[in-house]
Each structure stands twice: as structure tokens, then as C-alpha cells.
Amino acid sequence: MTAIWRRYLLVGVLVAAGCVLLPLGFGREFVYCLIGASGAVAIMVGVRRYRPNHPVAWYLIAAGTAVGGLGDALNSWYQHVVLIEPFLSPAIVLHFGAYPLLAVGLLVLVRSRGSEHGPAALLDSAILTVGLGLLSWVFLIEPTWTADSGPMFARLVGVAYPLGDVLVFAMFVRLAMAVGTWNTASRLVAGSFGALLAADSVFAASALVPAITDHTYLADPGWLVSYVLMGAAALHPSMRELSAPAPERVEAMTATRWAALAAAVMIAPAILAVELIAGVPLQAAAVVIASTLLMPLLLTRMIRIIRQLKDQAQRLGQLADTDYVTGLASRQHFADRLGELLRDAHGQVAGFLLIDLERFSEINDTLGHPAGDAILHAVGVRLSELTGARALVARMGSDTFGVLDPSITSGEVADRAAVRIRRALERPLQLPDLSVSVEVCVGALVLPDDGADPVLALRRANVALSVARARAGRTARYGTEMESGDTLGPLLIGELREALEHGDVVVHFQPQVQIGSGRVFGVEALVRWQHPRHGLLGPDTFIPAAEQMGLIGPLTQYVLDSALSQCAHWRREGLDLTVAVNLSVRNLLDPGLVEAVRSALQRHGLEAGALELEITEGSAMVDPRRSIQALGALAALGVTLSIDDYGTGYSSLAYLQRLPVRRLKIDRSFVTSLVDDPANAAIVHSTIELARVLRLDVVAEGVEDDATLLMLQDMQCFAAQGFGLGRPVAAPLLPELVRHIEERLPGVLGTPELDHGDDQMDVVRRQ
Fold first, then answer.
1. Is there a contact between 663 and 676 (Cβ–Cβ < 8 Å)?
2. If DSSP codes are grouped into helix, strand and coil, which group holds residue 560?
3. H or E segment to which residue 336 belongs
4. CATH class of domain segment(s) 331-482
5. DSSP code of 280?
6. Contact 64, 42 (CB under 8 A)
7. What is the CATH number of domain 513-750?
8. What is the pLDDT of residues 638-689, one digit of tens each?
9. Whole-structure pTM over 0.85, yes or no?
């Protein structure tokens, strides 16, 4: 049924076209009047069908359409029956009566939209109306009124049409400026009034242009299309929206509105320019009057635009400074305030607390993101209540909050505040549908003592937070002693990517010795960071942080390439060694791991047997299915696989048998005290025996002395590595270290001295 407007529009346009093609006469006028009447009837049908909020507006428009149509009918009667000029008949009164009815109907629609709350729309309507009025005056009203020929009544009629058009145009522009007006119905209404104005302009020009005087029927298509379009607008369902309150929103200056206002403003100078070029008398008075009206309107409009721009800038600033979910300050705003505090401190002290929600991602996965957002909002509200008005509370990350509190003036106060906030936040949070408890940890600083600039303060806050996670009380205050070991990683992790690019990450190599022969058959690649300020850093300092920050992939690729490149170099120099590289759990779950290993081997011209990849038993157990799949593909490639730090996890050899590994590396915690601790000796011996049954080689780590090495020889352990055999060294020092080991160990182990001309790889057990 909603397609009725399309059918009416199509039929109406076709009939209007047929009417225009009919010869002049009573029959043509009759069809013309029927089309006008159909427009009024269509409006009434639309009102009854869709029941708009303010039907009076549509009734007035229907009345205006009907009155105009009745005027057309009387015109035809007087022209073809009574045989007098139409403009001298009472029909002309009906024609002019249509304009006030249409204007009032539009005014009611304007008021029903609630656009009295939009003064900018009123100003724009007034500016456009003044511009059109000036055009009408110069080209229609003034020439018609000052014409020498023709009776006074005819001149009044000629002037009345453009005046009525200006009145209707003013009301229509006012409606068009109402926010949210444009839809199918409003576009049809716009087309209707556009056709009406065009037809009236042609008719008014007939009094001035002799070529048009005898062809006034040329205006008929415009009036007919106007009737049809207005009827179609009323039959469209969106006509209800034209009399419904407009949504409240910020008035926007669109490109169309800017263009319309600019055109209205340029009308006056354009008229003067055309008249000067044409050499005709200037319409100075009209231009001055119109300009006098436009100037205050334009000035008021520009003031409103400037205010609007300022308001928008303020709102954008507020949005940038505010977190959408919690309503707290954003990270950027917090950083700005932190910078202002440290830059203009002048003895001012403030506490900086960094609060992290533990396992928040699990809560999100379990309860869903809406519940997660509600928890974040509730935490933000409680934090604001705990810290008071002087403190700045911000959301620093997905599950991290920051507090900048000037009431915290010492380390002791910061400690107490951290404990108080942790306890308060761990009380149950009452959400609309459930009660939730969260665990938090808090890192604290006292500024400016613990951080002289924002970047350093933020990094040290992360260090304190990292320490807090490892403590039973879940709180920690920053201290310089934290800048070592595991806590240095969060402080420096931002520099790791640059260190990889600049070659500051280096690889050292520790020999692996076959106990049965005393021969060095391979090396383990151990990554180090040659930091410009902190010196040579071990892997435990930065690898955990690299895993958390998503840099473990690039780091592992860097180590793999460095190790394989060095292995290829040694082999070209006659030192036939294998190289072992450690993988993390994130590497193991990376779907591109196998292809990356294959490409690296091809890039450096090495067969797969030259590479050993070490994984911890814990990493293999994180996702056994994916681990078995990845390790199976690597084993099929020919890479040797080994379990590193065996004995520190919770898996059994029977379970690990499902993995395609060829070696176990017993953790140094069992090997170091092998000689003095019978329990550890029993564990190592039983592990070696069981591994032999399972056809796995065993490598003992942490061999610190010859006594331990000899005891491992008695247990028939396959290989060993440790400081007692050789410390990790840079690649250029390794050949000399290998020579020294192979010259010393045969005497310790009681094995024949090695012939360095033999192929060292022959002694590596093949399975």
C-alpha cells in the first residue's frame, strides 16, 4: 500500500504531460482543473491514512491547493463561457488566497518541528528570503509596477504574484532549515514549491516580455507538476515526520547551506555589477534597503557561527580528555597533567598510583563486554570516591587506572594509600544484574622524587606495578633497587625494538659436550642485550616483558637468524657444530613458526639437522593439541627438538612421549647439587634411565665442576653443558673455547684424545 504515492505520481505526471499537449480550449482547462483537484484530494487521503501529529498543517496546504484549483476553474469559466479577461474576474482573488493558506500551512509544520529552538535556522531563512525578495523586486515587482502601459489592476495582479511567492518561499525555507527535515516527503514538497515558484515567475514575466504575453500557457506545466508533487508528498509515509518534533542535535553548517547563504549575500553586488555592465539605471535604493536588512542578520549569524565553533572545540576537547566507558580522564589528559605537574612543580609533591585489575580479560570472556564495561565504570566511580576532588583519576589502559593525588606527600602516605585503595576496590561491586569482586594490584610513586619527567614516571610506575604483582600484598612503592632483574624489563621494553634495529641485541654461545667422547658437538644460542646505560643484560631481564608486549616474535626471529648465520660461518671455517635456539610459548603457538624456520634454514644454506629448537615442558602443555601439531611439522622438517628445564614443570615423561622430541635437558637445579644431594642424584639417574628406554637423549645443564661431570658419566648421560665446561661467549671466542674443552676433557673423562681432523658430527648420536 505504501507504493500508492508512486502510482499517483506516475499517473499524475503522465496526465499533466497529456494536458499540456492538448489544444487550447475548454477540454484542456477541464483536465487541468481535475489535476489540481486530485492534488487536494491526495493530501486529504494522506492525512487520513497516516494521521500526522499536526494534521492542521496539511489541511491548510490542501485548502490552499483547492483554492488555487478553484481559481483555475473560474479562470476557465470566465475565459471560455463569460468571455472576459481572467485577471479581471473574481477568480484572481482565489488565486491570491491560496498563497496565505500555503504559507500558514508551512508555518504550522515549522512550529510542529520545534524549530523555534533553532535561531540559526531562522536567521538563515531570513537571509535567503531577503535575497530572493531583492531579486523579485528588481526583475519582477518594480518593473511591473512602473510599467507605463496597462491598467492599475493589472499591475497590482502582476505585483501580487511575486509577493505571494516570496511569502511562500520564506516559510518553505524556514521548514527546510529545520533539523532532520529532509526525507522523501520533504523532497517532494520542495519540488512542488519549486515548480510553483517557477510557474509564477514565468506568468509574472509575461507582463514585461511580449514574447511570453501571448503564451502564458507555458507556465501550466509548472503549476500541474506542483499539484501532483504535493499530493504525492502527502501520500508518502514519511509525511508524518514533517509534523513530528525534530531530534535535538547540534546545528551543522553544511556545504549546501554555506553555498545558499553565500549566493544570497552576493545577489546585491551581482545586481549592481550587471546593471553597470548593461548601462541601465541602477537599483541603488533597493540594493541599499536589502543590504541594510542583510547586515545585522549576517553579523548575528557570524557571531553564532563563532560561538558554535568555540562550543564544538570545547566539546571535542572534553571528548579527547575523557574516557568513553568510565567517564574518567583519558590517558592523554593524565599524561598532560603529569607533565604540567613535573614541569611546574616548584616543590609541589604528589603521589602517582597505577592500579591494575587482575585477570580482567577472563572476566570479559566469561561475562561479556557489556559486563566488563560496567565493572570498569564501577571501579572508576569507587576510585573517584576514594581519592577525593583534588585527585585526578584516569583510565590508562584496558584494565589499568591511574591516580595523581596531591594529598600524597611522602612514601609512607603512598604505601597507606595503595593498601587502602586495593582493599576498597576488592570489595564486591554491585552491578545492575550481579555482584562482582575483582583483584587488583597497585604500584606507587612519589613525584617528583621518583620520576623527573612524564615518560620516566610512567615507566617506573609500571616497574612498581610489576613488582606488586609478585608480592603477597599486591602493592609496591617504587625504589631504585627495583631496577634490576625482572623489574628492569618493563622499564626498558620500549627500547627493545630499536635495539634490534641497531644490533644492540647480541647472541652468545655456550658449548654442549658429549660426555662419552668429550667432544663439543653443538652450542646453545643465548640472547643478551648490550644496553648503553645498564650494560650487558641477561635474557631473564627482558624476555618476559617482550612476551607481554608482543615483541617475542621479532626477537626470536632475530636470534634464529643470528645463530644460523654464525653456524654457517663456523661450518665454512671447518668447525662442524649444531646450534640450539630457545622458543617461548608464544612462538610455539605462532602459525607461521614452521615456515619461518624453513625460510631461515634456506636463507643460510643449512640442512635442518644443524638446528635444535628448545621448548620448556610448561610451554608445550599450554595448548597440547597445537603444540603437537607445530612440533610434528618441525620434526618432519628434520629439526632436532628438545625439552628445556625438564623437571621444573608438572608433566611426566609418559605424557611428553606424545611430543616428537629427541632430547631432554635436565634443569640445573637438580644437576648443580648432584654430588652432595642423594635425592637429586636419584632423580637425575632415574630420569636418564627412563629416557633411555624412551629413546631420548639427556643433556644435563648446570655442570659446575669435574666431579659432577664424572658422576654423569657413570650414569651414562649423553651430554652436558655448564660453567664448569665453558661459559657463554661471543661468537669470535667460541673456536678457541672449543679447542680448550676438547684438549682438557679426555684427561678428565679418561677417553682417547680427539683427532681434530675427524668429522666431529660423526659422534653425534643418530636416531
1. no
2. helix
3. helix 331-343
4. alpha beta
5. P
6. no
7. 3.20.20.450
8. 999 998 888 765 555 556 667 888 999 998 888 988 898 999 899 999 999 9
9. no
